[in-house]
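Late entry, evening session. Most of the bench is empty. Finally got around to the prediction I had been postponing all week. Sequence below, unchanged from the version circulated by S.P.
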Amino acid sequence: MPDACPPPADAHDADRALAAAVLAGAPGAFERLVRDYQGLCWHIVDRMLRHPEDTRELCQEVFLRIHRTLHQYRGDSALKSWIAQVAWSMAVRHLERRRIPVVDLDGDGPPLEELAGHGFDLEAAASDDERVRHLHVAIESLPPLQRSLLALYHLEELPIAAIAGITGLAEGTIKSHLFRARRRLRDLLEARIGVPA
């Protein structure tokens, strides 16, 4: 018996097929979308808000918004990027409504040519349990924007171009914030546990 529905040819086809299934009200389609992307949503929102109850509530609102606006997804980009963009914009608006600064405005940051040689390795800094604990405390001290960009870049392993598409920030701005976040983490960890520069 031939397969009535051949598998999608590529990831964009799979994304479009999932979106179409959700829009058609196929049983379990929206639940699958939530299951596939709830971790991504949590990483973005939690890194911005740092409050578990607010994060849980806002993640629910993100998926409600996705359900209402999925018809706007055209399949030109990865569904992951589109969902991340919705989560990002809702988290930023949440912080703005509460008058919580999204960025730390205490410096202009380095010129872009210095960004390549940031000299701080997050994985090396987290090589044992105590260092991991100190690293998490240091990350918590970062402004919401820097925490989120670190999560997208290091946890979600998204390229800078994809992060730019999600956040609407210029690639140079993202690199600058990542550089400042790493520098601040390095300084904090050096002071607490002597991580070399």
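Two things to note before I forget:
Residues 11-97 form a domain with the Rna Polymerase Sigma Factor; Chain: A fold (CATH 1.10.1740.10).
The chain has two domains: 11-97, 112-193.
Will write this up properly tomorrow.
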